[in-house]
Amino acid sequence: MTVQTEQQRRLPDMTYTEQETELRAAVRSVFEEKAAAADVLARTESPETYDTGLWHTLAAEIGCAGLLIPEEHGGAGASFREVAVVAEEIGRSVAPVPFLGSAVLATVALIASGDTELLAGLADGSVTAALAVPFESMAGTRPEATVRIGPAASDDPDGTYRLSGSVSGVADALPAGLLLVPADGVPYGLYVVQSSAPGVSKSAVVSLDMTRQLCDLELDSVPARRIAGGSAADLAVADALRAGAGILAAEQLGLAERALDITLAYVKQRYQFARPVGSFQALKHRFADWWVAVTQARAASRYAAACLAGDDADVMVAVALAKSVCSETALLAGQEMIQLHGGIGFTWEHPAHLYLKRAKTTALALGTPDRHRASLASLVDLPAAP
User: Fold this and answer.
1) Which of 16, 145, 242, 278 is a Cys-bridge partner for 267, taking CB atoms 3.0 to 4.6 Å apart?
2) Alpha carbon separation from 212 to 94, 97, 150, 192, 270 (Å, rounded)
3) Boundaries of CATH 1.20.140.10 in the chain?
4) How far apart are CA 107 and CA 100, in angstroms?
């Protein structure tokens, strides 16, 4: 009989459950029907880069928007494991939907703040929200607050606060009806702002990855409601950024897997010198290295999702490891996808560049690999190099 150590007994199960597999199948069928490569590419060249119709299907009909929201507030009461499965499928399709910004970052911030008023709208997909921090923000350091509470706040008859300032490079803010804004001043806190309120201005940024177009926000004496203050606000934002990094790693995993699948199918049918190019020994080695990298990334990503789901004490280590590993694996996948497709991989019509652009922007988002490795070294007490 095998005797398990205490460490082995406490390791989470990282395999996919039957429910997660069924959720994956449902989400993938939607993307196969509504987010084909040609459709995604065409949308990047349109004025509306986000697919609000696809998001409504995913959010309201499949129920993905409310996965993390408790059942008593209209959500599914699921865990980060299920959220990670959806993120993997989004990565596979590079789908232009605000899942990360609304169903993860904003939802986690609201739940952590203790505010439940808005959760029902988020759960049924009627409300989309975004956390108004730069996309490169990382848990562990407070994002620089560039919005302040106006001095005339106390003069409002309804007791609301007034926010003024700007936030640059916000992800998933363009389709958002609600903005969660960290603001300095007295009192410091996390505030809810209606995007349609007078004084709110959104400016779309021409982004490297137009499947997740960033946005600059300007607030001019905008009415706001405070949902958390002081250390509670810091904790809510930090929890959201940490969860976002872990789920973004799952998205990168899905991207790397899909890029590998597409490229492997291509080299099997592309012939040179009367042989499929995939039979060349040099390419076999490259694909073997790629497959190993994806396998390692899957282990890191699944561990992070399991730790987030179980509120494990190892969650900070798991997220830092997953984000650093999956960022580099996604970048490898995007680069190899273009290179191994040869000439066609460099064309605008082929979707390879969408995968490389999503890989590059997600590597920079919510903490770069270097920043997460530095965080990881600190967390495990690894001494600095001499």
Assistant:
1) 278
2) 9, 8, 31, 22, 32
3) 235-379
4) 10
β-pairing verdict for 178-183 and 129-131: parallel
Q: What is the pLDDT of residues 181-190, one digit of tens each?
A: 998 876 678 9
Amino acid at 367: G
| 104 touches 83 (CB < 8 A) | yes
User: Cα(35)–Cα(277) distance, rounded to whole angstroms?
Assistant: 29
Separation between Cα atoms, residue 10 and residue 56, nearest integer Å: 38
pLDDT in tens, 252-282: 999 999 999 999 888 777 766 666 665 567 7
Q: What would the two tokens of residue 213 be?
A: 């177009």
Name the CATH superfamily housing domain 147-230.
Answer: Butyryl-CoA Dehydrogenase, subunit A, domain 2 (2.40.110.10)
Q: Which residues pair with 165 in a beta bridge?
A: 147, 219
List own/partner pairs for 27-36 with CB under 8 A and 24 or more apart: 27/58, 27/62, 27/64, 27/85, 27/86, 27/89, 28/89, 28/92, 30/54, 30/57, 30/58, 30/62, 31/89, 31/90, 31/92, 31/93, 31/95, 35/93, 35/95, 35/96
The highest-level CATH class for domain 235-379 is mainly alpha
**Does domain 10-127 sit in CATH 3.40.50.720?**
no
Separation CA 170–CA 105 (nearest Å): 12
Dist. CA 329–CA 259, nearest whole Å: 11
Q: Where in the chain is the domain with CATH 2.40.110.10?
A: 147-230
CA separation for the pair 86, 95 (Å, rounded): 11
